[in-house]
Write a structure and sequence with these properties.
The complex is a heterodimer.
Chain A lengths: L2 E3 L4 E5 L4 E3 L2 E3 L5 E8 L6 E7 L6 E3 L2 E6 L4 E6 L8 E9 L7 E3 L3 E6 L1
Chain B lengths: L3 E4 L2 E4 L4 E8 L5 E7 L6 E7 L2 E5 L6 E7 L2 E7 L7 E8 L8 E3 L3 E5 L1
Parallel strand pairs in B: 2-11
Antiparallel strand pairs in B: 1-3, 3-8, 4-5, 4-9, 5-6, 7-8, 9-10, 9-11
Classes of the chains: A mainly beta, B mainly beta.
């Protein structure tokens, strides 16, 4: 069975601080996909990144970076120099490799509050 | 067109009403999903349609009835709902098949059952 754990329920930082959101996953498949989504108060889920299980290269996109470590089953997300607009709920999610539509399973989410 | 469009954005219905939620995508995606999200909780999968056939039903009560009329449309028919069914209902689509290119979500329908 697949499972995603985001141990941090809420994080509060002051603007310009760096912040890391943790994500640990469980799966028995050798091929799987990991995602991060941002959900602002308006409700829509905004796609941030997808990582395949066979590609452990870390990625940086502007102020965002992701650290994928298969050895520890973790896929952590770091925001550098946080801004008030980063305030949102962030979800880590896992999808296994299925022939049909793959089930996307979410972690509990981390609510990030960035204060000016 | 890289969007998933959901209508209506807001819906208030009584417990004896029948209503439908609509989801549409024109990206050629062959898998479509309904998720339910309660406040302060993650989205929970309800149904998956793959190539217009229901492939996953996560033991959802029969008062929720999904329908996929064609590869671009997904409906969720609602009947005799309870107040605890009030939630944000999200539709999503994906490429389908063995390679997962990701999921695109709609902005959701905020449902209130009174």
């Amino acid at each position: 069975a697949q499972k995603v754990t985001q141990a941090q329920t809420e994080i509060s930082v002051v603007e310009k601080e760096d912040v890391t959101l943790d994500c640990v996953y469980e799966t028995r498949d050798t091929t799987y996909y990991l995602f991060w989504y941002k959900q602002p108060p308006s409700g829509e889920l905004v796609f941030l990144i997808r990582r395949n299980s066979f590609d452990e290269q870390n990625e940086i996109s502007g102020r965002y970076s992701w650290n994928f470590q298969k050895s520890t089953s973790s896929f952590n997300f770091t925001i550098t120099a946080s801004q008030v607009v980063d305030s949102a709920v962030y979800f880590c999610a896992l999808s296994e490799d299925l022939n049909q539509g793959g089930k996307l399973i979410f972690g509990q989410g981390t609510e990030l509050s960035v204060k000016p | 067109d890289t969007e998933v469009t959901q209508t209506p954005k807001h819906l208030v219905m009584g417990m004896t009403n029948k209503k439908s939620l609509k989801c549409e995508q024109h990206m050629g995606h062959r898998a479509m999903y309904w998720y339910k999200q309660k406040a302060k909780k993650p989205p929970e999968l309800m149904f998956v349609y793959s190539y217009e056939k229901l492939s996953i039903n996560e033991s959802v009560p029969s008062r929720f009835s999904p329908e996929c009329p064609n590869s671009s449309l997904l409906n969720l028919h609602l009947h005799a709902l309870q107040p605890e069914d009030s939630a944000l209902y999200l539709c999503a689509s994906s490429q389908g098949g063995r390679v997962n290119y990701g999921y695109t979500f709609g902005s959701g329908t905020r449902l209130t059952v009174v």
